[in-house]
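[Discussion] Sanity-checking designs against the backbone

I'm trying to build intuition for which residues belong where. Below is a structure token string of 511 positions. I'd appreciate it if someone posts a full sequence so I can compare it with mine line by line.
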């Protein structure tokens, strides 16, 4: 027990001295004790009662260490004798025990009359995960991806999922360790909403080396991934009077949802083998368009040279392009294509991320905007969240500057190529007649079928067999052939062959 316990103290004197100090408004964080609650001359009685009640109610369970008498007396602004007397009484009752320098701890709880057990809490039963039929039964709503993630599956071919097991944990830990060793105290405060300067500089270098873009670090805005860049862009356009942003069709359902959540219409623009049809874009009358020109999602086509020239003419006439550099770094059988922003910097907002290169959980990306939009995009980011977390930004900057990120990309290309080859071969063996698109790059394939069945039924049948994927129709606003979007980056070649074999069974079941 605390060294002071067991020493008799003149209680009256303790009360008199403590009461003289209790009127100052002092109190303790410990049990929210406030000596002003004590009756005159009864500080020790009051404190003993409060401590005994806390022990009885379980607020101070057995083994809890009580504050030292000197520390608690200072917090309460009472004499130390008041606290000593209270601990002594609790010790005589067997409720606390002293352990020398280890202090005073709760030893037992007082016995009280048994009370009837409380009724069990009435929590709603946890909802069962949705069935495969429920996920694909209707048009996809805002929570469709959450529902699909909640359904257990033996093999997950969800597109856009990288190989998370390949995350360079050791390199990231080294980078974080160096950051914590070298970071100034100012790095731990509120920072620039554009992002930390080190990462803006590293991203500018990355874009110059890998995307043929020459940008100044001050032009770079760090974002929480491409999704936030699309949202900020859409908000700036909406606030500027724009009411619609054209999108590719088929095109990413998630991106379309982000724009629709802002109240923006998303007129569809057809995509063919050369990419988005600029003549159809003109016909929509939209003044802005969201594109994935380096690797169109979900078809995988690259925006051709003629279409790029036509798009530049459209933009020169007042159009604005949001370039989602989707999967640009993941290519296997074709040369790199320049970013649109490198050709038309004044009319293109370029955005990218490391979600497919490292991990979506990092929530790190960037946007490079034309001068006339830069200030308003920064303001939108400021009022969204004051900017992102600084320490992950500094760690990513280390990976980019050290060359570690390029080394990781080279490793992934080798691994992804093997998995892509395994999926192409499996589709040939188990889905005869299916048309494969987008095999030259990216993390997914799109397969279409010459059949009349709804692809949502096919996706449901596949999920019932333990294989998770997405129907092509989710990503289309206009009618088209049935198809599936199949991610392969996160699965081994053996798992891919097994999954596609199950897809063959599903096709035969619905066909």
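Best answer:
Here's mine. Compare freely.
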């Amino acid at each position: 027990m605390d060294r002071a316990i067991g020493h008799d103290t003149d209680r009256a004197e303790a009360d008199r001295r403590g009461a003289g100090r209790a009127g100052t408004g002092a109190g303790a964080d410990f049990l929210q004790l406030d000596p002003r609650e004590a009756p005159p001359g009864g500080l020790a009685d009051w404190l003993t009662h409060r401590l005994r009640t806390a022990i009885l109610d379980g607020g101070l369970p057995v083994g809890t260490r009580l504050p030292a008498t000197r520390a608690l007396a200072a917090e309460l602004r009472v004499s130390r004798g008041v606290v000593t007397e209270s601990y002594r009484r609790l010790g005589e009752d067997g409720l606390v025990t002293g352990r020398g320098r280890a202090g005073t701890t709760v030893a037992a709880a007082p016995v009280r009359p048994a009370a009837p057990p409380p009724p069990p809490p009435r929590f709603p039963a946890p909802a069962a995960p949705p069935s495969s039929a429920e996920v694909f039964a209707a048009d996809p709503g805002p929570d469709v991806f959450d529902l699909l993630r909640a359904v257990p599956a033996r093999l997950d071919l969800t597109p856009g999922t990288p190989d998370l097991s390949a995350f360079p944990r050791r390199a990231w830990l080294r980078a974080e360790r160096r950051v914590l060793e070298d970071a100034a105290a100012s790095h731990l405060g509120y920072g620039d909403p554009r992002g930390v300067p080190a990462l803006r500089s590293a991203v500018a270098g990355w874009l110059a080396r890998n995307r043929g873009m020459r940008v100044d670090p001050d032009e770079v805005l760090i974002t929480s991934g491409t999704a936030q860049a699309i949202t900020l862009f859409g908000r700036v356009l909406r606030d500027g009077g724009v009411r619609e942003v054209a999108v590719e069709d088929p095109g990413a359902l998630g991106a379309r949802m982000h724009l629709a959540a802002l109240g923006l219409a998303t007129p569809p623009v057809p995509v063919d083998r050369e990419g988005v049809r600029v003549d159809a874009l003109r016909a929509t009358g939209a003044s802005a368009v969201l594109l994935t020109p380096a690797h169109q999602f979900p078809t995988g086509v690259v925006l051709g040279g003629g279409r790029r020239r036509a798009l530049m003419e459209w933009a020169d006439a007042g159009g604005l392009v949001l370039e989602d550099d989707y999967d640009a770094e993941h290519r296997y059988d074709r040369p790199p294509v320049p970013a649109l922003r490198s050709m038309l910097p004044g009319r293109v907002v370029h955005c990218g991320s490391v979600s497919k290169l490292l991990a979506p959980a990092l929530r790190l990306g960037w946007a490079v905007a034309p001068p006339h939009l830069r200030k308003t995009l920064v303001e939108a980011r400021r009022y969204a969240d004051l900017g992102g977390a600084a320490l992950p930004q500094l760690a990513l900057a280390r990976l980019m500057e050290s060359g570690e990120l390029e080394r990781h990309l080279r490793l992934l290309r080798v691994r992804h190529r093997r998995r892509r080859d395994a999926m192409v071969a499996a589709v040939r063996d188990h889905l005869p007649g299916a048309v494969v698109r987008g095999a030259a790059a990216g993390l997914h394939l799109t397969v279409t079928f010459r059949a009349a069945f709804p692809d949502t039924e096919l996706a449901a049948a596949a999920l019932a067999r333990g294989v998770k994927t997405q129907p092509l129709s989710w990503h289309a606003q206009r009618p088209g052939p049935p198809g599936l979007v199949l991610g392969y980056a996160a699965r081994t070649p053996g798992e891919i062959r097994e999954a596609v074999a199950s897809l063959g069974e599903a096709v035969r079941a619905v066909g």
